[in-house]
Amino acid sequence: MRIAINTRFLLGEQLEGIGRYTYEVCKRLVAQRPQDEFIFFFDRPFKEAFVLGNNVEPVVLMPPARHPILWYLWFEWSVARALKKHKADVFFSPDGYLSLRTKTPTLLTIHDLAFEHYPDQVPIVSRYYYPYYSRRFCRKADTIVAVSEFTRKDIIKQYGTDGNKIRVCGNGCREGFTPIAATIQEEIKKKYSEGKAYFLYVGAVHPRKNVHRLIEAFGRFKKRTRSDVKLLIAGRFAWQTGPVKSAYDESNYQSDIHFLGFVPNDDLPKLMGSTLCFVYPSMFEGFGIPLLEAMHAEVPFITSYVSSMPEVAGKAGKLIDPLITDQIAIAMQEVYESENLQKKMIEAGRLQRQKYSWERTARVVSEEIDRL
């Protein structure tokens, strides 16, 4: 079989989100299906490290697809022509986009429909493209794999898609997230939090991620406990960070809040494994991979009871209403003050994390490719 895959998100040294999903699934598909030929479609020069096996043929298609007009040209012209030219039997697109013009059977991954719920937090150049084309992509796809049951139901609700053609594939946790030795924990604390215990947030700094309420909640926690605990915020600043800046400027505990930016891959698992508690009060997630990373690092975590997060967290997380700042603050205080609660959450995480793995995700994708 000749399997074409959209690999345009395999870029650079630091893979995030869809790029990580693409890499982890493709790596396993290529290794598990040596009898098949893979054609990887890149939209710019690629690193040899992303040619994941001897049965992979890398192909660069122009133009670089990083703008709605270029998305259209890349998928509707370049990809459609390449699928025909390379005689692909199946096209797998792991980033929510596909070619409407191709006749090649297509498997599409949908991660979330956040743009339908928070259109004001989408850059204006993309605000009309996403809902207009995503509906058509879901109708065109022969099979869809959704990363969570929540996303599956959201696709059906938003677009009226036949639920029988949507299967849940889940996500996984990358290597490195494991319990951290006490000596390494102390080194991490000295490096990042002045040797003090800390709460940790990992992810884009964006209004939908609710970081501004986290900062406000941390202030309430500090006022009530008078503790020397720090708050570390690890992630790049994304579009629309005004509320986060305002919350920080108004905080009485600025010296205890550290913005780390993008943390190197070598340090991130150690940073997660050394935290007092991971706090992820996002307003909306299609899955929420950092929750899995917290479970594998065996640290307690707090997250929202909305969208996919209760599904992923199971009984392991302490769930809060992301709109109620005081709920976040109270949860932080409860975890901080109770070692027994921390132990119960960690034990529940050991059980919950067994439901998810990149091996399972790749197996679901592989089965759907065979079915197509």
**Number of DSSP strands?**
13
Largest sheet: 7 strands, parallel
Total of helices: 14
Shape: globular
What's the alpha carbon Rg, rounded to whole Å?
21 Å
Number of domains: 2
Average pLDDT number: 96
Q: What can you tell me about this protein's structure?
A:
There is one protein chain. α10 links the parallel β11 (277-280) and β12. The model has no long low-confidence stretch (mean pLDDT 96). The chain starts with a strand and ends with a helix. By secondary structure, it is of the alpha/beta class. Helices cover 42% and strands 16% of the residues. The chain folds into two domains: 2-172 and 357-371, Rossmann fold, CATH 3.40.50; 182-355, 3-Layer(aba) Sandwich (Rossmann fold), CATH 3.40.50.
Write the layout of secondary structure elements.
Layout: E1 2-6, H1 17-32, E2 37-42, E3 56-60, H2 68-85, E4 90-93, E5 106-110, H3 114-117, H4 129-140, E6 143-146, H5 149-159, E7 166-168, H6 182-192, E8 198-202, H7 211-225, E9 230-234, H8 242-250, E10 257-261, H9 268-273, E11 277-280, H10 289-297, E12 301-304, H11 309-313, E13 318-320, H12 325-337, H13 339-352, H14 358-371
Parallel strand pairs: 1-2, 1-4, 2-3, 4-5, 5-6, 6-7, 8-9, 8-11, 9-10, 11-12, 12-13
List keywords for this structure.
14 helices; 2 domains; Rossmann fold; 16% strand; 13 strands; seven-stranded parallel beta sheet; 372 residues; six-stranded parallel beta sheet; alpha/beta
